[in-house]
Amino acid sequence: MSDHTTHGDHDHHDSQHHDQHDHGSLKSYTIGFILSVILTAIPFWLVMNKVITDSGTMGLVLLAFAAVQVVVHMVYFLHMNAKSEGGWNMMALVFTIMVVVIAMAGSLWVMYHMNHNMMPSMMPDAMHMQSAP
Length: 133
Hints:
The chain is mainly alpha-helical. The protein has helices at 26-48, 55-76, 88-118, 124-131.
């Protein structure tokens, strides 16, 4: 025969195999679920009851709740922390956030300047000047 070992000599799918990944427990999933429900219910209540009347402030508050909820999902459901995958998950997350921030800031900057430079007749002051005889 050959020198190759048979598949039965070593079992790769051993149920006792433990790796370094934290797969969570019922307690951690429950905590994550409860936090997610709370972080969804509070903004819903704020919007439905019009607790904050200023739309800009309401938008910032909702964005803050959304950011906290993203962190809760990453920690409790995706099990991301500084130690997972030797720190590469966190490095990839930081890089992704940087790329998204740069792309969004650049897009908003371009759209603002395109609106300002290309549509001067649509500005409120220009419309009053055109209607005056």
